[in-house]
Amino acid sequence: MADRALGLIEVKGYLGAVVAADAALKAANVSLLNIETVKAGLNTVQLIGDVSAVRSAVDAAVELVQDKPYYLASHVISRLDNQTDLLFVPKRNSKTAKKEIASTAETIPSEKIEEKPQPVKETKAKPAEKLEGETRTYTREKLEKLKVVELRSLAYHQEGIRLSKKEIKFANKKLLVETLMETIGEE
């Protein structure tokens, strides 16, 4: 079995990391382990594979990016010990496993949630239509009990209201109630 090696290429910016990773992956039979953001703007491309393949991949990437302003450093760690797998592989697998579990858990309840609100939305729409049809029967107390969203809906559909659509959009509850009372009181 061939010895494994870890190749590290440090660059500024994500674009530089992508360029270096692309060159390295095209040059030799290596695998991209990760592009890790060390801190703001600094990225490390991590490559893994056989010692000679990683050396040639890192050399090819360095040859391409060394004249660019985003190249900082590179290093190849030959003959990695098996205990170093704990640093790289399990973290990545546990994240993907957690994402798969979370996405599976999210899809099942979201389907149920999507089915339940549909009847609720229909029941909310029917009273709103009734409210629009009964605009002349409102008292100040009834209007003050309504939500601002419902008041805005009434104001949009009310003819002869003195507020523009933009003013209705940003109006508070007090202004909407007063304006609706003026308009309904005139009719």
TrEMBL record:
Keyword DNA damage assigned: no
Pfam families cross-referenced by the UniProt entry: BMC
GO CC, any one term: bacterial microcompartment
InterPro entries noted in UniProt: BMC_dom, BMC_shell, CcmK-like_sf, CcmK/CsoS1_BMC
Top-level taxon of the source organism: Bacteria
Keywords: Bacterial microcompartment
Cellular localisation: Bacterial microcompartment
Biased composition (Basic and acidic residues): 109-135
Official protein name in the record: BMC domain-containing protein
Organism: Streptococcus sanguinis
